[in-house]
Amino acid sequence: MSRPNAAEFTFYLAIPTMLGASLLKLVKFGLAFTFTEIIILLVGMIISFFVSLVVIKFLMSYIKKHNFKVFGYYRIILGILVLLYFSLVK
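Now predict its structure.
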């Protein structure tokens, strides 16, 4: 499987997970929203949708031209920093 296909598949897998988590939060909140809260929620959803489209387009173009080494190094460095932080903070 090519890198772009694998990345696209991963984005598709994230959709039901995000929808389920969002629905669960809405149900836990009780669905008792004021009009102002509904407007704020809708504006936030619309803005986050368009921002995610831009970011996904950027990531897909990056993946087509580069490999995943940068992400691997990032995850290793971040993991070491998190482990150090939690081992020092007690």
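The chain has one domain: 3-88.
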